[in-house]
Amino acid sequence: MKVKGFIATLLSLGLAMPLPAPAASDLPQIGTAGLSVLSLEKEESLGELYTYQLRSQAPMVLDPLVTEYVQALGHKLVSHADNVNYPFDFMVLRVNELNAFAYFGGHVALYTGIIRQAASEDELASVLAHEIAHVTQRHLARKLEQNQKNLPLTIAGIVGSILVGIANPEAGMAGLQASIAANQQFSTNYTRQNEQEADRVGFRTLYTAGFDPSGMASFFEKMVAQYRFVSKPPEFLLSHPLSESRVAEARNRAMQYPPLISQPSLEFQLTKMLIRANYGDEPAKVKGRLESELRHKQYVFEDAVHYGLGLVALQQDENQQALDIAERLIKKSPENLYYKVLKVDALIGLKRAEEAARFLAPEAGIRPNSPVVALNLANAWIYAEKGDEAIKVLEPYLYRHQEDPLAMDMMVKAQAQVKDTGAREFWQAEQLAYRGAFDRAINHFNRAYQAYGSNAIEQRRIEGRIAQVKSQKAKFEALR
Fold this sequence. Notes:
Blueprint: H1 5-12, H2 40-57, H3 64-78, E1 89-93, E2 100-103, E3 107-111, H4 112-117, H5 121-136, H6 139-150, H7 155-167, H8 169-179, H9 184-208, H10 214-227, H11 235-239, H12 244-255, H13 266-278, H14 283-295, H15 302-315, H16 319-332, H17 337-349, H18 353-366, H19 371-383, H20 387-400, H21 405-417, H22 421-434, H23 438-451, H24 456-477
Parallel strand pairs: 1-3
Antiparallel strand pairs: 2-3
């Protein structure tokens, strides 16, 4: 199967499988000193370190349509939350299981399985609100501090288990439970208390942000009903235990609030469809299910199902069919970026990349701050082998979005097309620094420095970046 256009670019970054782990010298090991009391500053530093671990090892979903939607939904909830001490960040991991987790410093991750399972935006928002509450209530920090006070443990052992659990929740939970086996009841009670508090606080955030509060109860009920008799429940139920009483509490809490009926979200349905088509089952299976949904009218928005069929057509190399679907959808909804990106990818698949770029280029003037437009436009120019045009798009974009791995990858390709060795080495270094591979990043920065020869301005810029990377590594070394 040949995959064209933007999805091909995403897959070329290794999103179908975990990225290689950094060298042992790149990311320092966390020791025990200085963690008896976790300040907000230290929590934030630990959050950064965990994020580097995720970037280097976890299968991240970087499609800007997905990330922009999830970020917008998450930040809408954060704007209505209390005790927000950090700028929040939301990410999606390509794991077809039901799980979500939050960790130090305002970081929240969703598995693609959660998005596929949610029936509505209200249900998805309820999961995010719950995880946001874990962060604002400092549950992870409180657990670590309380365990250290009550049990003969080292913080390093607990943090190590949590590090493992970020990429593999089952293994991480097993390690954590082993670490606190000396007092299992304490751990169970504390976890239950955390979950109840996250439900209560998250529910308030969900309601004040304008989402139907019954979304939390309906999601809980669905999980309990679907997995009541299975021998191995999904990770979400292992890390977020659901009892009948907890489900009843969510249902009763919803009834105590004035009714709030939210409208179905087309953007949610399109994002869910994108996940189903590009990060789920084999295209033939997805196509069969979508065709069945059309026949039986089992959909919220019919256009979302047609969009899914267009995505499947791309996956199956039926680019003209995808283009036809995209143009029909655009005729009905001329401003919809999901449909425009589908058309761009179809044109790239038909070897009409320059036409794709010129089709999308006007959107850059209309939506100058849109990552969806900038990244898809740059990608089209790269497929058209016009690296100079791609660079014109990527340079201002990367100035505003300095840590976008997809943009960095495109910049490396564009600089290779224009044969600028110094810039190519520089952006390869930035890719490595983004993943926490600090030592290897410095090596590439040094190569860029040499390639720039007598260009003193660029060399001073590189010297500054090397100093910043060394400072970042030292900051994590100080956590030992």
